[in-house]
Amino acid sequence: MASRLNPYLQFGGDARQAMEFYQEVFGGELVLNTYGSFGQAEGGPQADMIMHGMLETPSGFTLMGADSPTGADSAPVFTYSVSLSGDDETELRGYWEKLSAGGQVSVPLDKQMWGDVFGMCTDRFGVPWMVNISEPRG
């Protein structure tokens, strides 16, 4: 397997819901492993929290995520965005509609000065997304 770079998102207790949401958005196969399934936090409140989740999509995306082991208070704070880009307008607009639903749009998906269609939103789990639709190269 070739090396690859993919986002790994940290959640404060709602990783299962977030990863299931991303599976609804992108499709694909989702594998979720809990702390309890690895023998950690057995019987405790963290047993059902996600220790490692991985979504592999038909488009070749891999998105990983987990709950912070001690919950929301220890979830790290980062400045980041997850970026989706390409020239398949129908596919990317579909992702945008699902990701922005129930979230907050900071830049509406629209034609920009550089010629591409671009938008920014934060989904209902607090993850910031950028979507860039370029003209097909031909």
UniProtKB/TrEMBL annotation:
Query: What residue ranges carry the coiled-coil annotation?
Result: none
Q: Where is the Glyoxalase/fosfomycin resistance/dioxygenase domain?
A: 4-131
Cross-referenced InterPro entries: Glyas_Bleomycin-R_OHBP_Dase, Glyas_Fos-R_dOase_dom, PhnB-like
Which PANTHER family does the annotation name?
A: PROTEIN YJDN, PROTEIN YJDN-RELATED
- Kindly provide the name given to this protein in its UniProt entry: VOC family protein
Q: Which organism is it from?
A: Streptomyces neyagawaensis
